[in-house]
Amino acid sequence: MSATLRVVHSTGYRYDGGATSSYNEARMTPLSDENQAVMFSRVEITPSAWTHGYVDYWGTSVTGFEVHERHDQLRVVSTSTVDVHRRVDTDRSIGWEALRSSRCVAQYAEYLHCGPLVAPAPELAYQVAQLASHSSSPEVLVPELRELVDRRITYLPGVTSVKTTAEEVWAAGAGVCQDLSHLLIGALRSAGVPTRYVSGYLMAELDCELDQPTSGESHAWIEYWVGSWVGLDPTNAGDVGNDHVVVGHGRDYSDVAPLRGIFTGGPAVDMFVDVSVTRLR
């Protein structure tokens, strides 16, 4: 059964002393694919800005914008209506021999590279190698690695930042959805399974009243390739369903950050984020 969701994502900065100019990119518009269809989307920026929309290398919709007047606050509000109808009959037929072929390695090289944010700690890499050597297929390995990460990491907001690496999270033993995703991405890539980072939104409860806004989350999970892309949410029992709305994919968080930019003027002292999700059907 599909779900039609309205997502309102409001974010921005408050500046101490004001900003005189700012140049930004917002990745806050959901994509349309075989699992979801965007029925409406709008991005509003305060103060008024020059904007330019485009689709980046990874297939994510980007709103680039510039503000050239003094402002104490920058606010970006993305409003979207999305019909989510996630497939359950995904192809999972690829085995180790096909994954390790030169053709597959070349095709998915970007999702096999362990960059700084996702590179596993030596201890984790060793455990992954041990499990992979005894695993009959990638599909058997995935839940084993998820359990390995679950045993080690406690979900705890406020202990990491967007720059925290997977190795640092492993050492600390705590993190949030972004950190859990980075850990599992690095673990799977080190075993030779192409894996990508997913940025989007999560509705807390799909069985809530219709037309009643609820508190939502800006969320992160992963997709791994075993014949097709299969979603896995390491923060919420592993399942990716119609309560998940995809904004974009990338190698890690840095490819799909919701809002990033530079500015001139006083320092940014406060970033605010608010997400609400309403089920329409």
Walkthrough of the structure:
The chain is α+β, with helices and mostly antiparallel strands and 281 residues long. It contains six helices and 13 strands. It has helices at 96-99, 102-107, 122-133, 138-152, 166-172, 177-190; strands at 3-26, 36-46, 50-55, 61-67, 71-84, 154-155, 174-175, 195-203, 214-225, 229-232, 244-250, 259-265, 268-279. Strands 1, 2, 3, 4, 5, 8, 9, 10, 11, 12 and 13 form an eleven-stranded antiparallel β-sheet that branches. Strands 6-7 form a two-stranded parallel sheet. 40% of the residues are buried.
User: What is the number of strand segments?
Assistant: 13
Query: Number of helical segments?
Result: 6
As a percent range, the share of helical residues equals 10-25%
Strand content: 35-45%
Radius of gyration: 19 Å
Between the first and last Cα atoms, what is the distance in angstroms?
10 Å
Give a short account of the largest sheet.
11 strands, antiparallel
> Which structural class should the secondary elements be placed in?
alpha+beta
Indicate the multimeric state: single chain
Overall spatial form: globular
Query: What's the SSE pattern?
Result: EEEEEHHHHEHEHEEEEEE
Mean pLDDT: 94
Residue stretches low in confidence (pLDDT < 50, at least 5 long) are: none
